[in-house]
């Protein structure tokens, strides 16, 4: 299945977590790598950098190294264009999504992806299959 990777799973892979929770996230990641073709967009990478630093104190340098070694070799990064922006406006208006989530939903639609790996409950408002622990 073609699956979009949201920032939440990447942030949790990048930060220190209690061992039991870290194991659940790692298992989800390894299962996803083996069972799906993974995609994301550059906005997710921005979110991983920002949230890892702001919320968890992980340096930009450490997060960039994580992205370069653990994400980019395994996840296809899709471009964002004006097409996604136009669709995102509709998602913001119709479903009350935050702009970044609306851009992710538009990416999923435009590239024919079938699911999203996320803990974000905002995606429950859409008819997108959600994968989580």
Properties at a glance:
133 residues, five-stranded parallel β-sheet, Rossmann fold, single chain, alpha/beta
Question: Helix count, per DSSP?
Answer: 6
C-alpha-based Rg, rounded: 14 Å
What is the string of SSEs from the N terminus onward?
Answer: EHHEHHEHHEE
- Whole-number tally of structural domains: 1
* Order of neighbouring strands in the sheet with most strands: 3-2-1-4-5
CATH class assignment: Alpha Beta
The fold-level CATH name is Rossmann fold
The CATH homologous superfamily corresponds to: 5'-nuclease
- The total beta strand count reads 5
Termini separation: 17 Å
Structural class: alpha/beta
Beta strand %: 5-15%
Largest sheet: 5 strands, parallel
- Indicate the low-confidence ranges by residue numbers: none
